[in-house]
C-alpha cells in the first residue's frame, strides 16, 4: 500500500502526517476462557494484554467513525493508514485532517510526529514536485549485517550468463542465514523493482541452498551497494490512466523449463505495481507464455481499478495492456477456438472477456521499449539503467 499512499500524496500535492499511539497493543474487551482443568482452575478471564489480534485496529476504526469519518464516495476524502501503533494521514482537506487529529488525541495517547519521513522501513521524501519512496537505511543495514559495506559494486544484480539450478555446489552450513537474507531482500523490492527478478530466482532455493546460490545473493548485495538510496519517484502528472506492461521469458528455467511472467503497472505515469513470478505450468510456445503473463497482469489491472474506485481516483476509463508478442495479442483478441490454445486453462481466457467489454485495450510495443523485460530475465547494465529511468527510479542521495 505504500506506493498507493505516495500516489495519493502526489495527486493532492499534500503532505502526509505521522502519528504514533502508546496504547495500541491493549485489548479493548475482556477475553474469557472456557472452564478447563489446569493448575489454576479459577482463572477464566484474561486481563488487558499486549499483542493479541483484537487490538488497536478495530478500536481506531470505531473511534474515527464516532468522529464523523465514514466512506463518502462523493465528498473530499482523508486517507488514514493504520499499522499497529503508526498512523499516516493525508488528503486535500487540511481542516478535516486537523479535526481528525484532535479527535484521535482525545481518545488515545497519541504523539504527533510531524511530516511523514519514515514508515515501516520506507523513507518518504516529500517536496512540491512529488514524493520519493526509498529504503536507503534498510539497504545499508543489510550491507552492514553481511559485512558488505566496503564491497566492490557491480552494475547488474545477476550475471546474465549464470543459470542457477538446485544442488549446484556445496550445501550451506547455515541455510537459515540464506533464508533470512533473501527475506530481507524481498522486502527491499518494495522500492527496488530492479531487483525483483534476481530475488525471485534466489527465492527458489530456500529449502536447500548451496554456495552457488549464496554467491548469487552476494551479487545482488554488490549491486545494491552501487545505488543504496535508489527509490521510486511519484509525481502529479494530471491524469490517472492505468497502463500495464507484460512480458514473459519462455522456458527460461533450466530446471523445469517453466517460463517467468513479469508485469509493471503505471497509474498516471507513476509506477504502482510490479511482479516477477514463475509460471505454474510449462508453456508449449512463447505465445502461450506471453498469454499467461497477460492474464496475470489483467488480474492486477482489475484489482487496481477497484482500488481506484474505492479511493475515488480519476475517471472510470479504459485500461491499457501492452505486450511485445503479436501472437499473444491475437489470441487475446480472438475468441475463436484455436488449436494452439485449446489446452490452456479456462481461467486464463477471462482476458478475452475484459477486452470484449472494453475494460481493457491491448497494444503492441517493440521489444526495445518493453519495460517489463526487467522482471523476466537478467539484463546488462545499460539496459537495466534505461528501464529503471523509464520506471521512475530516482536517488535523492545521488550527487547533483
Please outline the major beta sheet: 5 strands, antiparallel
Radius of gyration: 24 Å
* Strand tally: 16
Helix content: 25-40%
The SS-based structural class is: alpha+beta
Poorly predicted tracts of residues:
42-51
Class of the largest domain in CATH? Alpha Beta
- Average predicted confidence as pLDDT: 85
CATH architecture of the largest domain: 2-Layer Sandwich
- The domain tally reads 3
**And the CATH topology of the largest domain?**
Nucleotidyltransferase, domain 5
Shape: globular
Strand order of the largest sheet: 7-8-9-10-16
Number of helices: 11
Distance between the termini: 30 Å
Quick one: CATH superfamily of the largest domain?
Ribonuclease H-like superfamily/Ribonuclease H
What is the beta-strand fraction? 15-25%
Organism: Vitis vinifera (Grape)
Protein name: Retrovirus-related Pol polyprotein from transposon RE1
InterPro entries: DNA/RNA_pol_sf, RVT_2
Domain Reverse transcriptase Ty1/copia-type: 74-158
